[in-house]
Design goal:
Number of helices: 1
Structural class: alpha+beta
Low-confidence stretches: none
Helix content: 10-25%
Shape: globular
Strand content: 35-45%
Number of strands: 4
Largest sheet: 4 strands, antiparallel
Distance between the termini: 31 Å
Length: 72
């Protein structure tokens, strides 16, 4: 059985996504929790968030630029 290595988004990028999701959904940023993240390509991460029960997906690049924030 082989294991695949999954590279998660750095904490600062996860926090950036959480703050963006809070603004987009109108939910207090302290209620947004990153639940998973992975590297899409060499410069892009996808972060899955839970915004008080609402699932939200965020794409962010390695430079800290938000590419998208949407309800999943």
């Amino acid at each position: 059985m082989s294991r695949t290595q999954v590279e998660t988004a750095p904490a600062d990028l996860q926090l950036l996504c959480a703050n963006a999701a809070a603004k987009a959904s109108g939910v207090d940023s302290t209620k947004i929790l990153p639940v998973s993240s992975n590297k899409i390509d060499s410069k892009t991460y996808q972060v899955e968030l839970d915004a008080s029960g609402k699932k939200t997906s965020c794409l962010v690049d390695t430079e800290g630029n938000l590419l998208s924030v949407k309800e999943a």
